[in-house]
Amino acid sequence: MAAAILFFYAAMALSAGAAGAKAAVVEHTFLVKQENMRHLCNDTLVTLVNGQFPGPAVEATEGDTVIVHLVNESPYGITIHWHGVKQTLSCWADGADMITQCPIQPNTTFTYLFNVTGQEGTLWWHAHVSILRATLHGIIIIRPKSGSYPFQKPHMDVPVIIGEWWQRDLMKVDKNFSNGGHFSDNPAGATINGKLGDLYNCSGFVEDNFVLNVEQGKTYMLRLVNAVLFSEYYFKVAGHKFTVVGADANYVKPYTTDVVAVAPGETIDVLMVADAPPCRYYMVALANQPPAPDPQIPVFMSRGVVQYNNAPIDVGGNCTKEALMPEMPDQHDTLASFYFHGNLSGLPSNPLLAQIQGHVDEHLYIALGKGSICKGNKPSCKRGGSDESIEVAYMNNVSFHLPEKMSILEARQHTKANGAFMGVQDLPSQPPRSFNFTDPALIPVVPGGKLEELEATRKATTMRRFAHNAVVEVVFQSTATMQSDSNPMHLHGHDFFVLAQGHGNYNPARDVSGYNLVDPALKNTVQVPRLGWAAIRFVADNPGAWFMHCHFEFHIAMGMATVFEVANGPTLDETLPPPPSDLPKCTNMKE
Ligand SMILES: *[C@@H]1O[C@H](CO)[C@@H](O)[C@H](O)[C@H]1NC(C)=O
Ligand SMILES: *[C@@H]1O[C@H](CO)[C@@H](O)[C@H](O)[C@H]1NC(C)=O
Ligand SMILES: *[C@@H]1O[C@H](CO)[C@@H](O)[C@H](O)[C@H]1NC(C)=O
Ligand SMILES: *[C@@H]1O[C@H](CO)[C@@H](O)[C@H](O)[C@H]1NC(C)=O
Ligand SMILES: *[C@@H]1O[C@H](CO)[C@@H](O)[C@H](O)[C@H]1NC(C)=O
Ligand SMILES: *[C@@H]1O[C@H](CO)[C@@H](O)[C@H](O)[C@H]1NC(C)=O
Ligand SMILES: *[C@@H]1O[C@H](CO)[C@@H](O)[C@H](O)[C@H]1NC(C)=O
Ligand SMILES: *[C@@H]1O[C@H](CO)[C@@H](O)[C@H](O)[C@H]1NC(C)=O
Ligand SMILES: *[C@@H]1O[C@H](CO)[C@@H](O)[C@H](O)[C@H]1NC(C)=O
Ligand SMILES: [Cu+2]
């Protein structure tokens, strides 16, 4: 296997250098519109692309150009983010609301144009205007140009998009989060490829399952995407094992397991051989959550069916009447996720690896937590449960405030390289004050518990500037002030190497020596363990303004975000070109 992988990288480098290899254009029109969908005996008005949930798949070959004409007939301003696409020199197409563009206003259009170069596997697209991504999302599949994988070519690709079905007004839910979070705002259920599955019914109507028909002996590549707003999910198929071969559109060292953990924003590619007796097997997606004293939300589980083509119709032979159920990890077992992620490693031949093995230019230690601010800019107020204050999430004690007048990238374009703009402040390199970040006694518990003690914090638009090609290390520290939540941290415009993770407080004297600098996995989203930390490194080689945030919707809505600005290089082909002429204007924005 190792030899095949090395050969693969050599082949990629060769084809990148070979002139004249023809790239195709993959073109779509995305019509964004509100429509009613009926589930659980209820019609719910949802915002969809081309009437589909999940939305259309974008299927491309490495090196292709993708063109998506977005036609917005919804009542909301919309942007679409191409999650994990590196967007080399095309930051304008990144689709991060108020970071790289102002929203595409109702009854207007915008064309996204970018290349998918130097990455293969599974990514996804989603709305990046607040919470609308719950229904505005779809898969991106990037296949190898050579047609060959660093493993045996699977018989078939199977997107497995884990989603949630909401029957609430998402804009109101978003407002609730921005005003401090309401744990009563929950989805109605979990979905696999838009199907709630047969665990859900109303008045005798059972919801459809996603059904995967398989042929015995064939290998299927399941491309898992977690597109939900809230939870990490475990995924299993009864009677089958997986070989994990990719994550976030990067190949990983093959790893065999019977359970996958996939956090919001992550993608995981696995091979599944149909080698079980020809019966019916449930595939199950189960949300996990930390145990009490963290607030508990209802358990969300969806199931689909893996069905062998020659399974006896009138059940008999060796098959049971019911499809077989896998034994799932306990809903509160967050260790299974820790181990799953700990077992991901990358390919030692990656060309960027040499750069992150040596000198590090910038070190950041980012504490992810929660505090409170007084309403109406008052200097003091009653905190915790009181109407006078709201709870916000922070990075290093600053809660991110989205700019309102102009996107950060446009401001960058209008400003001299080092000028301050729009009152943007530097994100501190480390927590202003150290405390025992992961002491469970600090978990805020409602009612009547530690919530009163949520400390004062502040809101500001923060950013970090990096020189072109700077080597950056970031250590994310989950803290008990954000309950004992994990934090799936996502960076736009770059993949990063995940060097280590651990429980408790990060301690460089002890933990640096444990860094994997040999074959770390390359990702765009890192699951920072609950009451723990994770360390990443990347090369800031893509000029632009890149959003960096938690992919739990209620954490980002509460301000767990910042921006990494990467400087242009000395030459024109290391400089971000000017914006496309149809970039939405920031004027006429509704407030
Ligand atoms: C669906 O509609 C029914 C009847 O209209 C209502 O009683 C029920 O609460 C709704 N279910 C959900 C999950 O919203
Ligand atoms: C968009 O156009 C439709 C049809 O012309 C119109 O009914 C609607 O009010 C417009 N929406 C906005 C926000 O202007
Ligand atoms: C896409 O790739 C082509 C060929 O390398 C290049 O000419 C073009 O500028 C690229 N477009 C973008 C938006 O990066
Ligand atoms: C938002 O919060 C309000 C007030 O706490 C609550 O009544 C409502 O159900 C919440 N959710 C939505 C979707 O409005
Ligand atoms: C419907 O769901 C309920 C509880 O969720 C369950 O007890 C019942 O067996 C289900 N009915 C059918 C027909 O699946
Ligand atoms: C049922 O199982 C037995 C023993 O495991 C096997 O010999 C037989 O071929 C199976 N029958 C079918 C129809 O799969
Ligand atoms: C890999 O998974 C196994 C089994 O769950 C676990 O014992 C081991 O600690 C994991 N390795 C890492 C580095 O997390
Ligand atoms: C931090 O809290 C944990 C859990 O209560 C405790 O085990 C540990 O000793 C504390 N560390 C320090 C430095 O106080
Ligand atoms: C956060 O900053 C506020 C001032 O904005 C200060 O009162 C508080 O002590 C700080 N908390 C931490 C944990 O640094
Ligand atoms: Cu978070």
TrEMBL record:
Protein name as annotated: Laccase
Family: Belongs to the multicopper oxidase family.
The Plastocyanin-like domain, residue ranges: 32-146, 157-292, 455-568
Annotated GO MF terms: copper ion binding; hydroquinone:oxygen oxidoreductase activity
Organism: Lolium multiflorum
PROSITE patterns membership: MULTICOPPER_OXIDASE1 (PS00079), MULTICOPPER_OXIDASE2 (PS00080)
NCBIfam families given in the database record: laccase (TIGR03389)
Co-factor binding comment: Binds 4 Cu cations per monomer.
One example of a Gene Ontology biological process annotation: lignin catabolic process
